[in-house]
Design goal:
By secondary structure, the chain is α/β, with parallel strands linked by helices. The protein is 22% helix and 31% strand.
């Protein structure tokens, strides 16, 4: 699956990371990320995003995070890949229990020609392993956490990337890589 198909945006693993390679602190703490994104340092990324696919664990962590009141962030529809959808539906969230490739295809179709953003270490690692990802975008934040959730799961294996862009906005450095197929 590639972003070169007509009318389809790219599949992009997108995450903020501490300098020591962690995407969440102890107990999945994510509050440290918010201080660097109070003012959106890269609005072009949000504009290019049409939908998001996340794992259930990441979704639960995100629900606990405070959202700045003055944000107009809209990454499009949110799809949560899970083995056990909740009993009660959540507004603006579609829970998927299908195969990973089908979940990517469903969310990608909903992105309306924009990029599909993949969030969360487990789902992102699975997508990378299966060759479903076009790009990896990392916001490197100037903080060392010491312990927490690694950038990828330990079973990911080797994935070769090709750097094609790095940009700094304030304290945040954005690194972009193409996935070598």
């Amino acid at each position: 699956m590639s972003g070169m198909h007509a009318g389809l945006g790219k599949v992009v693993v997108n995450r903020a990371m501490s300098l020591d390679g962690l995407i969440a602190g102890p107990d999945n703490a994510m509050d440290w990320v918010i201080e660097y994104f109070r003012e959106d340092p890269f609005p072009e990324i949000v504009r290019a995003t049409g939908a998001m696919l996340v794992g259930r664990g990441t979704h639960e962590v995100a629900k606990r995070m405070p959202t700045p009141e003055d944000t107009d962030y809209d990454g499009g529809p949110v799809f949560v890949l899970t083995h056990q959808p909740p009993d009660e539906p959540e507004q603006g969230v579609t829970f998927l229990t299908c195969d990973l490739a089908e979940a990517v295809a469903t969310a990608r179709a909903a992105a309306g020609g924009k990029n599909l953003e993949i969030l969360g270490a487990d789902v992102a690692s699975q997508c990378l392993q299966r060759g479903l990802v076009d790009e990896v975008l990392v916001y490197v934040l100037p903080v060392l956490l010491g312990d927490g959730v690694r950038f990828s799961t330990s079973v990911l294996g080797r994935i070769d990337l090709e750097p094609f862009s790095n940009t700094q906005s304030g304290q945040v450095t954005m690194l972009r890589f193409r996935v070598r197929k």
